[in-house]
Structure prediction request, 76 residues.
Amino acid sequence: MRRYNSPFNGNRYVLNKETGEIHDLDNETDSCHIDEMNPNNVVNCISYEDALIRAIAFKCPNPNGCYYCLPEHNQE
Prediction:
C-alpha cells in the first residue's frame, strides 16, 4: 500500500539504504516490515531501475528485490 506521508511521499518503490533491499509498495505484504524501517534509510524511487541506480550510488550492500513484494527481482 502506498504511503503518502513522510518519508515515503507516495512513491511506489522504496530502497532501504541500510540493507539494499528494494520494496514495491503496491505489492507490500506484512512480511516486508516497511513500518519498521528507519526513516533515515528510506529512499523513494519512481521505478525498480531507479532504485537500483540509487542503491549503487549509495553503495548499498547487495541491492536486491524483496522476497515478498518483488520476488521476480529477488536473487537470494
Notes: Strands lie at 13-16, 21-24, 42-45, 64-65. The chain has a mean pLDDT of 95. The chain has one domain: 13-68. The longest helix spans residues 48-57.
